[in-house]
Amino acid sequence: MSSILPLPPRDTGMHIPDGYLSPSTCAVLYALAASGWYAALRRVKRAFLTRVIPLISVFAAFSFVVMMFNVPLPGGTTGHAVGVTVATIVLGPWGSILAVSLALTIQALFFGDGGITTLGANCFNMAIVGSFAAYGAYRLLTARSATGSRRKVWAAAVAGYLAINVSALVAAVEFGIQPSLFHDASGSPLYAPYPLHIAIPAMMIGHLTFAGLAEAAISAGLIAYLQKADPSLLRGSARLAPGIAGATVIPVGHPPERRLWLTVAVLMVCTPLGVLAVGSAWGEWSAADFSNPATRASMAQASGNQAPPAAVPGGLHRLSTLWTAPFPGYAPRFIRSAGFGYLLSAMFGVGVLAVVALLAQIAGRRKGRTPLL
Amino acid sequence: MSDSSFMALTLRGFARAFSKALLSERTAALPGFLQSFDPRVRVLGLFSLVLAAILCRKMTVVAILFLLATTMALASCVSLASLAKRVWIVVLAFTGIIALPALFVTPGDIIFRLPLLSLPVSAQGLQTAGLLLMRVETAVTLTTALVLCTPWTHILKALRSLHLPAEVVTMLAMTHRYVFLLIETANQMFESRQSRTVGLVTGPEKRKMTARTAGVLLSKSIDLSHEVYLAMVSRGFHGEIRLLTDFHLRARDYAMLMAFMLASGLAVWMGR
Fold first, then answer.
1. What global pTM score does this model have?
2. Do A4 and B167 touch (CB under 8 A)?
3. Contact B210 A6 (CB under 8 A)
4. Cα angle at B19 between B16 and B20, to 5 degrees?
5. Number of domains forming the structure of chain B
6. How crowded is residue B216: how many other Cβ atoms within 10 Å of its Cβ?
7. Structural domain of residue A261, as residue ranges?
8. What is the mean pLDDT of each run of 10 residues along chain B (272 residues)?
9. Which B residues 36-75 touch A at CB under 8 Å?
10. Which of A99, A352, A371, B141 has CA atoms 20 to 30 A from the CA of B212?
11. Are B127 and B39 in a shared domain?
């Protein structure tokens, strides 16, 4: 179904024009694409905005031009690549999402190549699904391989072939669900007319044979070229996101401390879930538990029907009086709600630890500033 | 297929892109109907008509929108020949091929059979194929009218005024600018390669040639991005983006925007 394109110059086979997908399908795919753009833009902005803008823009222009290349294929024919695999390898998946999306937007808005209402679908299929499919396959296949290894070339070919075909499959599913979901009273399909059992083979034949091979050939050829001409690009010198194995990574996302604090906050909020737990933890018994028949029964059950000693063990009895906890059972005595007690205990515990950590940090800094004589 | 035909095909593609950009620049500068309105009105209005065409379920209403799009394009100095060559014939050829089997495979009331092959054509199939073809023709005609009558910079400014993030608008503007520079670079590389290519070239060699050309273009692109970055920094860029938006809506722009919205709403209501 590579002929789905209304305009011939950049026939990569997946530029869905206006009119093939229903407005609700377009809206859903716009929403999915928008979430991908938002996430990518956030990561890119955190990297280094002044450097990123020209890099992504020029790479998008490169992707656009590469889509115009007629790649010679076995059998004497030619095909067009998308360039998503090379973009993913060089820029990382998030940078690739932006670069390929920009190229697709220019194609749709300036060259009328692909629709306006279907721009979200095209970006979702090729830029987002394509980038992550290429990233996953390449990363899996090149784990612990050297920059100049032959494996990287083959991995790029496989990743390219896979990325294009996964994208095509997603597009085929989008086409294939149209007739069953959107038809008039007489049963006439209102948008793409073919059901899944026709749309999938029709779309995949062209991509498994031509478009996939074109992407595989251009990806492998480019990686082989970069290994010789500019290996730093394969090591992630232009990458904008957590990279493929062995890469130089520009830190993106939340700083580690902020991530830690967010996790601690979530765990604190979840502490009242402890109220839901029944029974007692093995070995965490108090001296009073040995004289309570119900607790003794649960101790025996938890210990493989081994009955606990009749009297409180001497050592336990002696040491249990050494320290009385301020919040016994994670609930201060003045609080009646067990859940709130858990939350308060968690806040208190985290607060104490934070103060200790802060004091240790201050002490460490002072020590660091002391001049060495 | 001759040994350098893949290069010839690529070069033809580059030439088409340049010719399209040139035509767009020339048409946008002419004193036509659409050109006389604020770019924001053009973008919003034509986008709303595209959406209306997609929402319509009746072929007659989509056909009316198609006539409206054609009339607007003609009044905006876009020639009929240009529309036919660049839009209608291409859409007819590509979408027609896709829509054609729908005539026979869509189940429904059979209205006639093809004389020699005796393939049944259903009323539902005819409706589906016709609606798809008409809708795509209408949407692409509207988009082409917008693209030909509005300079790219104006489209971008209009998108910015519709609250597209400034970073995205900047990247789109830069991408558009460097697309033509890179096309020119690739064009020169392919032309020089073509002029040096004699004799038989095997398939793997052709693929290597293409990949190497793409590789050199990639290296040049990365170098270019670095140069652009340094140029931006030297001019004082530190991450803050400011775009000039000097559009002013006049009474006739508001009136036209209302007319676009009314036409779109009416089309959706009539075509529901």
1. 0.71
2. no
3. no
4. 85
5. 2
6. 16
7. 255-278+327-373
8. 70 85 85 89 92 91 94 92 87 84 82 78 86 91 90 84 82 86 88 83 83 86 84 76 71 91 92 82
9. 47, 50-51, 53-55, 57
10. A99
11. yes
